[in-house]
Amino acid sequence: MNARAALAALAMTLGLGLAAPAHAQHGQDPKPAVQTTNPSARNPTADSVTEDALLRQLQGGSHIGGRISIPDYKASILEQPQGRDYRQFREGYLPWIGGIAVLGMILALAAFFFTKGRIRLEHSEESGRKILRFNAFERFTHWLTAMCFIVLAISGLNYIFGKRLLLPLIGADAFSAWAQYAKFAHNYLSWPFMIGLVVMILVWIRDNIPDRTDINWIKQGGGLVGKGGHPPARRFNAGQKMVYWSVALGGLALAASGLVMLFPFSAADINGMQLAQYVHATVGVLLIAVMIAHIYIGSLGMEGAYDAMGSGEVDLAWAKTHHSLWVEEQQAKTASGPQIGRGGKSPAPAE
Ligand code: HEM
């Protein structure tokens, strides 16, 4: 029996129609359909029509479905060729995209660190005077989002690489227990992450609107290329604005596609579910690579930077070096009266 005949026989045996009704393809409940399932009741002409139509559907990328009498349209789908494309992406391309993005970023940062070292204060002198950079509410929001992101990143990478890298090392029992906990963590920590993300977007959006100072900052490569020193910047420089917008847009894309997956088949049919997974996995690995760079610069990479999110206060000399326009704005505010820190009541002394 050739493939065409096998396909037709399979369809006949299952009593399948040619395709799921249009309303079923759009995810609505189909009307119960009564169907003749007796193959002997069909004639050869009808058989070859069935066979051709099935092949056309497979080649045309639509799914092969039947008519069902239960209100679950998924049960009517016998073959969905896009599933093969998705599997190819999931098992073939995705590990490469993820591996290159994450390992590539780690290697690039390591190369930078070992050739240029830490970014230091220009005059290597701390002033001993402090300026408040982030108040308690901002720091709480940052760390809530950051901690959740790190757990989501590790458990997310486990979906892609766990089976390949960890399973052979720790064995099936340990891997299945770990993967189970990782999955729970991924599902449940997505909620505080989404809350933190939305608050973070709202709290910092005003200071992240691109402006003219960013063009100059980018032209000078953030002060890393050439000998011009650190270009002037407001509260966030162009590099930080890129991090902010990557987190904001990438995070929202992750949240939207993640919600589709948290409630399977509620908002999307099988094609929509696959689309959500393409988006979630690709944006996820790219954002992890961006955040590795951010974590590096916020800790090891730049002298004095961590304090901003640690205690909230940075040395005035550091602030003048990296955010000179912001310091001027803060000092002008302090000079013109008592200052109220953004997002809370804490004063933000400029000096
Ligand atoms: C252990 C990990 C992390 C460290 C050490 C860290 C450190 C920092 C520091 C020091 C700043 C302030 C920089 C400044 O003074 O302007 C900052 C800002 C910020 N962080 Fe993090 N961070 C971490 C993880 C994350 C994660 C996972 C996210 C997002 C999911 C995130 C999102 C942001 C954003 C949007 C800003 C403001 C824009 C910017 O400064 O780039 N951080 N972080």
UniProtKB/TrEMBL annotation:
The Cytochrome b561 bacterial/Ni-hydrogenase domain is annotated at 133-301
Show the ranges annotated as biased composition (Polar residues): 34-48
According to its UniProt record, where is this protein located?
A: Cell membrane
Q: Report any Pfam family annotated for this entry.
A: Ni_hydr_CYTB
Q: How does it sit in the membrane?
A: Multi-pass membrane protein
**What stretches pass through the bilayer?**
93-114, 140-161, 188-205, 242-263, 275-297
Could you tell me one molecular function GO term of this UniProt entry?
A: electron transfer activity
Can the keyword Flavoprotein be found in this entry's annotation? no
Signal peptide positions (record): 1-24
Per its UniProt record, the required cofactor names are:
heme
This one is known as Formate dehydrogenase subunit gamma
Phylogenetic placement of the source organism: Bacteria, Pseudomonadati, Pseudomonadota, Alphaproteobacteria, Hyphomicrobiales
